[in-house]
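Q: Here's a chain of 176 amino acids. Please give me its 3D structure as tokens.
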Amino acid sequence: MKRLKKVGLIAVVCLSLVACQGGVPKEALELSPESLQQRQTQTRRFDTNNEAKLLTSGAQVLQDLGFTVEDSETKLGMIAASKDRDATETGQVVGAILLAILTKQAQAIDDKQKISVSLITRPISAKETLVRVTFQRVVWNTRGQVSKTEPLDDPKLYQDFFAKLSESVFLTANEI
């Protein structure tokens, strides 16, 4: 019994030492060149210090794009919104049918997706505010399992969003 206790104590001490050994690798805290490019794509500078109007314009653009605003906090400069969409792709359906014929088992295919967006404002001077927007999606298959969780990084998506936001900011500022 004493021997078993000693072996157990030694195992606990060894495991504790191994757990403390590692730490966070230096590379884990470094940003890649791609992340800088993504941040630049997702961010625009606006010549206004009125965060409330920027957030109002942002919410209007998101609603025009079919998103439902789920949360917003003017004091924090934040909007979170989402929309549900069909995720069925013809190529995936055809592939699943062919695979089902060969294996004689039904295959799961992408079925629905939730596209989420977050919009954050940050004043950078007395006359300028940064707006950063990020789009993500979660895809579920026909078995109700998550098949994909990914950021949406298409630069055109962000260019189109910011073009509409710039137009909305202009119209709001000029009360048109």
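Q: Can you summarize the key feature?
A: The mean pLDDT is 85.
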